[in-house]
Amino acid sequence: MTSLNKKTIEDIDVTGKKVLVRCDFNVPLKDGVIQDDKRIRESLKTLKYLLDHHAAVIACSHLGRPKDGFDMTFSLAPVAKRLSELLGIEVIMAKDVIGEDAKAKAAALKEGQLMLLENVRFHKEEKKNDPAFAKELASMADIYVNDAFGTAHRAHASTAGVADYLPAVCGYLIQKEISIMGEALANPKRPFVAILGGAKVSDKIGVIKNLLDKVDVLIIGGGMAYTFNKVLGHKIGTSIFEEDKLDLAAELMKEAKEKGVKFLLPVDNVVGDKFDPDCNYQTVNSDDIPDGYMGLDIGPKTQEMFAEAIKGAGTVVWNGPMGVSEWPNFAAGTRAVATAVADSGAISIIGGGDSAAAVEKLGFADKMTHISTGGGASLEFLEGKELPGIAALNDK
Ligand code: AMP
Predict the structure, then answer these.
(1) Atom 6, ligand 1: which residue's CA is nearest?
(2) Which of 109, 196, 217, 297 is the most buried (most CB within 10 A)?
(3) 37: domain range?
(4) Nearest CA, atom 11, ligand 1
(5) pTM, 2 dp
């Protein structure tokens, strides 16, 4: 793992400079209307700092997955409009990314002004981290700021490549992610409890392996628990499990034992007769799930056991729901864990994606120390991997 001691926007003089800021404006859009502007609001602190310190700001981002060139259904124009409303200033929208319009507008941009480039993924060179494309992007600015944690695990031109051509620092969002998560992993307040859930063991193997060296307690819930329970010889009915991960699950449990890590698995489950929000369901012990039934949530005894382990924690890291929490009949386990984390008083770090959405939906967001702004990126961070978008930034 490379240094996380990266320069921030406060470590560099931005006055009178053109600053290219990689934001995460990948907002949900429907018929050109933004469904949730959270990511735009989260970018404001960094953008305001730069504008207040007399920088001329050139913001850029990707949006969705445009396939072939300039597909205007993925235009960032709605983001420019919303950003303008939130900041109370005009946001100059470029018609392209590195074309004539963007370059002319960037050249004319003055201190305290903000422009937004079009979707960087309109150029296939973006995802290829093409050096010529990165250089063109860089040519419009004097300084590069990365504040898009959600794409920091990707080595793309606007997230990493551009840093080869400019002084490169992080914005407040990335700074917060690396300081809180970095500190939790390097120097956790103990006991350190990790809670992992979600559908598959295979998605979280790297995280489990890395965390086994660091945590005191590892709690496993969600669909991934059944692979472990199968190893223990439990009847798991039709619950999802990964046949090809049984050996690995056994190995991980053995490793936990050797390392003195308390490894908690569900002892009861809410099981349904099909994968359907309105299926017939009942609560049973985890070692005896009836034929034809699948585990869709943790049961009340497990909720209590997990809550007890979380209660005394100094640090909690949580990634992945305890069940199919999108469906009301199977959301209780995730709700119970969220409540326990919120009430624990521990340093609480919620990985992005489903667990972050669950915590927000339950109204517990304010009670958590940190909710990561990146699902995939926070997982890779917890795996101990180097994130290219962070590695590319200048060390202090
Ligand atoms: P992940 O993206 O790996 O965090 O997984 C989140 C998904 O796992 C959510 O869509 C949940 O519905 C799903 N999930 C959680 N528990 C189960 C389960 N017991 N069976 C099937 N899917 C589950």
Answers:
(1) 198
(2) 297
(3) 9-173
(4) 324
(5) 0.91
